[in-house]
Amino acid sequence: MQNQVVVLDIGSSKVTALIGERGVNKTFLIKGFSEREYSGFTDGQFLDVQSFSGAVKAAIREVREITRVKIAKVYVGVPGEFTTVITKNHHIAFSKKKKIRERDLDELFDVAFPFKGESYRIINRSAVWYELDDYRKMADPIGCVSEVLKGSLSYVLCDTGFINTLSPILEEGGVREVEYVSSALAEVLYLFEAEQRDRICVLLDIGYITASFSVVKGDGIIYQKSFAYGGGYITGLLSEILGVEPDIAEKLKRKINLTCGENGDNYNVIDGDNEYNFSVKNVNDIVVYSLDELCESISACLADAKISIPEYVPISVTGGGVSYIRGAKEHLSNRLNMLVEVVAPKLPHLNKPIESSYIALLDLALTQAPQKEGIFQKLFN
Q1: Residues in contact with 230: Cβ distance below 8 Å, sequence separation at least 6, in sequence order
Q2: What does the buried/exposed string (b/e) look like for 221-234 if buried means 16 or more CB atoms within 10 Å of the residue's CB?
Q3: What global pTM score does this model have?
Q4: Which of 24, 31, 229, 355 has a CA between 20 and 30 Å from the CA of residue 295?
Q5: Could you give the CA distance from residue 126 to residue 139 in angstroms, rounded to a whole number?
Q6: Which residues contact 135 (CB under 8 A, 6 or more apart)?
């Protein structure tokens, strides 16, 4: 049997549980899938823990029923809202030249940042680069011979409040073991090729009510910041200014095209027996105003990061917040004076930006999971 894993992706409006394994040609086989809406989170807090708990339990229960297995372990993707990134430069020296092994890398990470705080827990450790005594920098020094091992190291820490909230919920659902991993790290490792990351990459994941901005180099995140913004903010603004219900505003948002806006043109929205017409120019002006607010947050992140981003490096946008709005990336590019592109998984039938998070999480979980680690127990023969 192929190695399979269960992952739980925590979005700002939905939780997604799925069971999958690797297929051929870098594809995945999804054995079970469940997506449930809930009230979301902001400022590092769930808006309604009961709503969140119900969504998690229902999603896990549904994939269990679909696949007819008892789930023993789940990999949870932790949103950027609940994580912080620490970077350290450190080195260790050996008594003589030796072949670098995995345990030497572990020692380097351990001594560089011996974290023992109670408010956070380290969930991922990865290297921006390693360097040997001949000054060669590389992504993987295992097997090389050196007297010194240097590293620029990245640590992702998770707020223990998130863990203390979710772990009991999963335990009540029959899950005995949970491994927490960074959603942002999973995305940058999956969406960008190693050659791109060796230079530098910028990822902006925009959800429904929160966005996460990450700068990555090598295999490590070197800067990360989350802020309040998402597709729900555009929906709310349309609803408030146009005086319509949020569900009508959401349908309207799906029709927006910022590249058009002649006077007299209208967006037409059908809701049951009701028909609504909205001025294209007025609606587009509202969306542009909201996107300009997003640009201010992005500019603040770039200034705060204090990292030189080459002109040829784009801001890569993913998630379901604004990536499907036609003309949005062009407006962001013009406003920021930077190239902006939309990125998503390059898979048949799984190629939408909104799918980036859980597909990347599945890929990372399959990479980290021991072969046939026994995370499933058959219920039926």
Answers
A1: 12, 206, 207, 208, 209, 210, 211, 321
A2: bbbbbbbebbbbbb
A3: 0.92
A4: 355
A5: 10
A6: none
Smallest Cα–Cα separation from 223: which of 77, 81, 364, 87?
Answer: 87
Distance CA 9, CA 118 (A): 24
Weakest mean pLDDT among 106-110, 274-278, 375-379: 375-379
DSSP symbols for 289-301: HHHHHHHHHHHHH
Dist. CA 289–CA 312, nearest whole Å: 27
Per-residue pLDDT tens over the stretch 9-64:
999 999 999 999 999 888 999 999 999 999 999 888 999 999 999 999 999 999 99
Using pLDDT thresholds of 50, 70 and 90, give the confidence band for residue 327: very high
Residue with tokens 């009991």, as numbered in its chain? 168
Residue 43 CA, chain-centre distance (Å), reads 17
Cβ contact 231:207 at 8 Å: yes
**Residue 161 exposure: Cα atoms within 13 Å on the Cβ side:** 12
Ordered DSSP codes for 314-335: -EEEESSSSTTSBTHHHHHHHH
Cα separation of 170 and 111, whole Å?
33
Q: Distance between CA 295 and CA 277 in Å, rounded?
A: 29
How far apart are alpha carbons 144 and 164 in whole angstroms? 41
Identify the bridge partners of residue 22 per DSSP, sorted by sequence position. Answer: 28
Angle separating helix axes 160-172 and 49-67, nearest 10 degrees = 50
Check residue 118 and give its pLDDT.
Answer: 87
| Axis crossing angle, helix 246-253 with helix 231-242, rounded to the nearest 10 | 120
